[in-house]
Amino acid sequence: MSSQLAKLLSCDMNENNLPVRAEQMRARLRAYPLMIGVQVLVALMLVVLVWDVVAHQVLLVWLGVLFVELAAEFFYASREVVKLDSLDECRLWRRRLLVSVSLAGLIWGAGGILLFVPDNFTYQVILICVYLGVSAGAATTNPVFAPSLYIYISLLILPLAFINALVGDHDHFMLAGLLVVYWAFLLKSGRELAKIFELSLHRAIENEYLIEQLVAEKHRAERANEMKSRFLAAASHDLRQPMHALAMLVGALKEYVQGEQGRALQEKVEHSVEVLGGMLDTLLDVARLDAGVITPNYERFAMQPLLKRLRDEYKLFADKQGLRLEVSSFDGMVCTDPMLLEIVLRNLLS
After folding, report:
1. From CA 308, how far away is CA 329, in angstroms rounded?
2. Which segments in the chain show pLDDT lower than 70?
3. Measured between alpha carbons, how far is 151 from 232 in angstroms, rounded to an integer?
4. Which stretches of 55-207 are assigned E, i.e. beta strand?
5. How far is CA 62 from CA 38, 59, 126, 150, 222, in A?
6. CA 304: distance to chain centroid?
7. pLDDT score, position 323
8. Judging by beta carbons within 10 Å of its beta carbon (0-12, 13-18, 19+), is residue 115 exposed, middle or buried?
9. 327 near 307, Cβ under 8 Å?
């Protein structure tokens, strides 16, 4: 039992779970302004409420001690908010946080005893309602760092349950029992909330890691593609030379081919070489564009002559494949690089 309690309060911290633990503490620090502001407001209203039935000196001392502790917490939280980058820093912050939470819980727990009015059941019920509200608020903010919840809720509620039990009558025994049940319920609920919050942090950190990996892979792929494009652009002349030589050799072969079958075969070879040359030219032109070797030369020109030329050139290819190529009339002007636009349109038509 004691080992389980120690494990719950220690909130195990190591290099493997450091990102999660650090984010838990940052979330706890971000909640400090709201938590402290609410405690100040509730404490002031509670003191005003019991001002006429509790000794003023007791109220002022309790309120002053609470304000000093809350001010110290706020100063520390605002000073340490960015110092959670290493395991040692997080462990140091965890120890200090547990101390500050324990002090705040002790002060509120003492308030449950000092502000308890023995002979006035109405004020006792009001005090219990206030403490139930404070503990419920703590249960919604402290689960981001579970040990602070266990300590704070226990020190807040159990002294109030104890002082009710000391009264000794049936009603106060029932109130003490209800407070203990409420305390156990808050601990259970807070623990489940802490698990959900920690799981969400694990998934968020994993997603962030996966996104970083994806971005890194994307950059590597882009660099590899850029290197390929630059290589093809640089080797453009060397790669085109063999194709030009092959086209010339196929053309010269006509003089030595005899017979209908030979000429038909020679024409097929010549056509294949033309298609291969066109594909290579397109590939190299795109590679040069990707590599940034070609600089666009913008100018205004009419689109219709270009469209007519492409229609006349590709209509035959479309007819052979059983397709119909239609080009609408366009009398407008465009401003772009005519050579690059023609390359793009040829790629689309091909």
Report:
1. 9
2. 1-18, 20, 77, 79-86, 142-144, 228-240, 243-244, 250, 253, 275, 278-294
3. 68
4. none
5. 17, 5, 18, 23, 65
6. 51
7. 82
8. buried
9. yes
Sign of CA dihedral 311, 314, 317, 322: negative
Copy the structure tokens of residue 108. 């509120």
- Residue 126: alpha-carbon gap to chain centroid: 44
pLDDT of 22 reads 73
Tell me how many degrees the CA angle 110-40-123 measures, rounded to the nearest 5. Answer: 55
* DSSP-derived secondary structure letter, 244: H
Give 277-300 pLDDT, tens digit per residue.
766 666 666 666 666 666 778 888
CB proximity list for 156: less than 8 A, separation 6 or greater? 105, 108, 109, 112, 131, 134, 135, 138
pTM of the predicted protein model? 0.56
Torsion of CA 25, 30, 31, 36, to 10 degrees: 110
Q: Residue 316: what pLDDT?
A: 74
- Cβ of 243: how many Cβ atoms within 10 Å? 17
Choose among 179, 59, 33: nearest CA to 117: 59
Side chain identity, residue 297: N
Q: What residues form DSSP beta bridges with 276? A: none
